[in-house]
Amino acid sequence: MAKLTLSDLEHVYPNGHRGLIDINLQIQPGEFITLVGPSGSGKTTLLRTLAGFFQPSAGSINIGDTLVAGDKTWVSPERRDLGMVFQEHAVWPHMTVFQNVSYPLKRKRFAAADIAQHVTAVLEDVGMAEHMKKKPTALSGGQRQRVALARAMVAQPQALLLDEALSALDEPLRARLRQQLRRLTMEEGLTTVHVTHDRSEALALADRVIVLNRGRIVQDASPAEILTKPANSFVAAFMSDAAVLQGSWTNGTFYPDDKGLYIQPDALASQPQREITGVRCVATVAPEDIRLETIGAHQPADTTVGTVTSVLAVRFGTELTVTWSGGEFEVYAPVGAMIPKISDRVAVHFDRVHVFQDSAMTTHAVHA
Ligand SMILES: Nc1ncnc2c1ncn2[C@@H]1O[C@H](COP(=O)(O)OP(=O)(O)OP(=O)(O)O)[C@@H](O)[C@H]1O
């Protein structure tokens, strides 16, 4: 339940690759943060540096008031008092569930009666008390992962570090464990850092989402802010599957390079300053911010017109693909919206568009 402070942190791998660059991050006691980013963005490097498996090349890490790395100080992973859960159910196969979960308390020299009480309580919390005498080989993947979680939490660590801890599980088990994890960490007031490549999971679980790209933090914000105020086109494209449109910004208007696209000025949710003029920009538009309408007899001449090329019914509505001369958009239509058929020509309206002066960023977007 400690505050974690990472200051000016850098990690350079032996081959010279810069895994972490200029990481500054404060995680408050009891806060649940998710680290998300494309493959190779540095999520695992950051978590492992925090855990003490990697020594930072520069900067410092504090757990609570204790300096654990930096300024010629180095505290080994075992002495950082952190709970950890990895993707592959890292429980000891030769020990029973009870023995696995009691291990951190034995190391801290708890009395046998206290161990029994704590282990039983945490196994009840994760719904595994009835299995405490079993060996992990007799458990399902989800059950083993719950044992790993119980073991990571039992000794009330300073913080819980999760590296793709739910990723190997199938839905709906994964969804259930996700809810359990959130409830337990809140009840215990556990500071939690959760690495995931799953963007929906990152947004659903976190108090705060840290988006990484190429070893750097590119946005540090609440889930709502990440979606409604992406810091740049990379975040918009990566986190929202937004379409990226090249163009220029002149006198407060975005002019897409593709002349078939029309973006109404009142759709602009973020934009460069009005005085900045004649510069190259990119606009991003998320699938849920596009509305499709049937083409009417009195269609304004500047309407963007596209052709529907795929229609997919999903749980919360319909996913469509619409192409126009220059490219394609993904569109999410909510339940009750007009749903066209494949090959229909439709009017495309952009309800919310972000314009950024950062065209270089979009080239970095690689989906995990
Ligand atoms: N031992 C190593 N030596 C050199 N470079 C490494 C080493 N381990 C990782 N890297 C590089 O550091 C960068 C960050 O890797 P990291 O594993 O932290 O990414 P990640 O965001 O966790 O990716 P993924 O989602 O694929 O697990 C990548 O470019 C990776 O190739």
TrEMBL record:
Name of the protein: ABC transporter ATP-binding protein
The protein's matches in SUPFAM superfamilies, at most eight in alphabetical order, are given as: P-loop containing nucleoside triphosphate hydrolases
Q: Which InterPro entries match?
A: AAA+_ATPase (IPR003593), ABC_SmlMolc_Importer (IPR050093), ABC_transporter-like_ATP-bd (IPR003439), ABC_transporter-like_CS (IPR017871), ABC_transpr_FbpC (IPR015853), P-loop_NTPase (IPR027417)
Q: Does the keyword ATP-binding apply?
A: yes
Its taxonomic path starts at: Bacteria, Bacillati, Actinomycetota, Actinomycetes, Micrococcales
Q: Where is the signal peptide?
A: none
UniProt xrefs under Gene3D superfamilies: P-loop containing nucleotide triphosphate hydrolases
ABC transporter domain location: 4-239
Q: Which UniProt keywords apply?
A: ATP-binding, Cell membrane, Ion transport, Iron, Iron transport, Membrane, Nucleotide-binding, Transport
